[in-house]
TrEMBL record:
Pfam name, any one: DUF5302
InterPro entries in the record: DUF5302 (IPR035172)
Domain of life of the native organism: Bacteria
Protein name in UniProt: DUF5302 domain-containing protein
Species of origin: Microbacterium gawkjiense
Compositionally biased intervals (Basic and acidic residues): 1-41
Stretches for region Disordered: 1-60
Length: 60
């Protein structure tokens, strides 16, 4: 391996490391508010009274 190939590999590894760090930073930032570790749902009950609809035929 020549010196040029070693410096190219080192530069490539450095670039990969920088991109990886930037991606980890981006992902950590976007996941910050969405942990939901408690597993609790936002829906806690039904809305209003639950009744069966009744259809009547129009008379006359």
């Amino acid at each position: 391996m020549s010196d040029d190939e070693k410096t190219a590999d080192a530069a490539s590894e450095d670039m990969k490391r920088k991109f990886r760090e930037a991606l980890e930073k981006k992902n950590a930032h976007s996941r910050k508010g969405e942990a939901h570790l408690d597993g609790d749902s936002a829906v806690h009950g039904t809305h209003g009274a639950v009744t069966k609809r009744e259809f009547r035929r129009k008379s006359g």
